[in-house]
Amino acid sequence: MCGRTAVSLGADRIRRACAYCDTQGKRRHPEWKNADQYSPSYNKSPQSNNPVLLSRKHIEKDASSSERILMAMRWGLVPAWFKESDPSKMQYNTANCRSDTMMEKLSYKGPLVKGKRCVVLADGYYEWQQRNGQKQPYFIYFPQNEQETFSKPDVKDEDDDLKDNRRLLTMAGIFDCWEPLNGGEVLYSYTIITVDASNAVRSIHNRMPAILDGDDAVRKWLDFAEIPTQEALKLIYSIENLAFHPVATIVNNSRNNTPECIVPIELDAKKETKVSASSKIMLNWLKNKSPKKEEEKEDDLPRWSSQFIQTAPSKRSSTSLMHQWLKKEDGGTCAKQSKFL
């Protein structure tokens, strides 16, 4: 299952990372509908608000279903038919839904047949492995291109090669809209679809999120008007294209929200790997850097690549790149395989 994620980018940087080409081949950036309801965190848990991609047609009936928007939604689906006045009174967990039973359960089948498909975004997710009688957390993410590293806070827009081009994890989800019985603001919420674990992550856990690998899969999952439900469900399967490394147990407490949550550690060391001097500099920058709140005009957006308009991958491993991000050469080594759910 997927029970914890890291989403460290600010709202504007997420928008830039989600650039895509529309049906005419024009480069576009999805607009945020409620960016004020999203806040970054290295340790997101269910009931938090997280960035989700969906078709613009769900919000604007006259829009093309191929257009995308970003929305902060509550993690943990609250079905439209829920009758209580408070969504926290739900007595069952809807953070994840199993792919093999989702068409049998009203909470998920109802939204699915109405085309309420979304893509849940994250840097990566955490999974726990049983190890020597204890649970060892791992951080699992997409392999990254060589250019996809943390940028310096003072780089200029024209320095494209230094920009932050991390490839966000794109997980298949289902959303719904719930209206309080006594009136009030409509609540948008989602669940993450899970599948049997792939060979890559099976050693960590037997379940993982259904991950959409590539923009064609993302496009088909979101475009509910052109891609019917049964056709879209063919995109739901486990993938091998993942990287992972063990992380410190501080992530076990969801109140811990620091960059150390995703720093690689050495499992065989008697003590968890100490953060090197060079890594501390990077970590301090990550702690102090706050996303800009002001809106930017479309023409002012930096022209960097995104996960949806990709460049050729580097031959260097994503594990070594993660070391460059957070630990440098004297940091801990990463595991060679990954796990989720």
Explain how this protein is built.
With 341 residues, the protein is of the alpha+beta class. It has 6 helices and 15 strands. It has a single domain, classed as hypothetical protein yedk fold. Helices cover 14% and strands 23% of the residues. Strands 5-1-10-11-15 form a 5-stranded antiparallel beta sheet, with no helix packed on it. It has a 5-stranded mixed beta barrel with strand order 6-7-13-12-9. A two-stranded antiparallel ribbon has the order 2-3. A hairpin with a 5-residue loop joins strand 2 and strand 3 (27-28). The longest helix has 12 residues, at 277-288. The model is unreliable at 147-163, 270-279, 289-305 and 327-341 (pLDDT under 50). Belongs to the SOS response-associated peptidase family. Keywords: Covalent protein-DNA linkage, DNA damage, DNA-binding, Hydrolase, Lyase, Protease. Its EC number is 3.4.-.-. Pfam families: SRAP.
Q: Secondary-structure blueprint of this entry?
A:
Layout: E1 5-7, H1 11-17, E2 20-21, E3 27-28, E4 31-32, E5 41-44, E6 49-55, E7 68-75, E8 96-98, H2 106-113, E9 117-122, E10 124-131, E11 134-141, E12 169-178, E13 187-196, E14 207-209, H3 215-222, H4 229-232, E15 243-246, H5 277-288, H6 318-326
Parallel strand pairs: 4-7, 7-13, 8-13
Antiparallel strand pairs: 1-5, 1-10, 2-3, 6-7, 6-9, 9-12, 10-11, 11-15, 12-13, 13-14
